[in-house]
Amino acid sequence: MSExxxxxxxxxxSLLLKDPLFKAKLATFGExxxxxxxxxxEIIETLLDKATAETCYHFKISLKKGNVWNEYEILAxxxxxxxxxxxxNGKEFLGKKAFEEFQKIPSKPYTQAIMEITKIEEKVLTSLxxxxxxxxxxxxxxxxxxxxxETMPPSVSREIASRILxxxxxxxxxxxxxxxxxxxxYGYRFRNLRIRLAEDVIELLIELRSTSSSWIRPEEMIKxxxxxxxxxxxxxxxxxxxxxxxxxxxxxxxxxxxx
Length: 259
Fold this sequence. Notes:
The protein is α+β, with helices and mostly antiparallel strands. It has two domains: 5-129, no CATH class; 156-258, 2-Layer Sandwich (Alpha-Beta Plaits), CATH 3.30.70. It contains eight helices and eleven strands. Strands 1, 2, 3, 4, 5, 6 and 7 form a seven-stranded mixed beta sheet that branches. Helix 2 (20-29) crosses helix 8 (218-238) and helix 7 (172-185) runs antiparallel to helix 8. The longest helix has 21 residues, at 218-238. The model is unreliable at 132-138 and 149-154 (pLDDT under 50).
């Protein structure tokens, strides 16, 4: 781990990993390289190799110890960790404390590891840190106000069916892999996935079976799948915010969440 250094402002920067807008920008402007799974040593070696490259990477790591999965999020550029967040045994750590926990990974009895990798150019990342410029709009006077023009709104369903749905269906196998991996992370057994257009949303129906290793309630898991694991990937592949409804069938019980 000595190959990696941390920024002096890592405490403040790491807070961005809790900002949904910043995370959405990472997913939109980054290049998703996929995910890898294996032994902890192999995953860490891959991370160190990429984190010291001449560009920036965002890593999401899940590590299994017993029936518990701990998680790390790291953004690194050229061997320097810009921000880091850790979720360990239900507790959350940011910045230096999270880095200290990260350094302890090789000494802990983790049995499985999964890592998602997104590459993002440094100049693009720098632009994400800049606040959006404020635009002042001058209100027109009554004399110069143009008459209102009535326009028919475009068909949302037609837009989804013609442009968004095909791009999602092209990635069906990748979505199936994501659903399999991340439901397994929470101790569930993946059974099936169906994708369809339901009115004005893309509906993903995932069939699961709970096991003796299931350590999180389905009501909590559906939130994590929607907002953290699957939703951002769909936005990236479709190059737009996907109107998503996730449906879980767990042991025959149905749960729905639309974002």
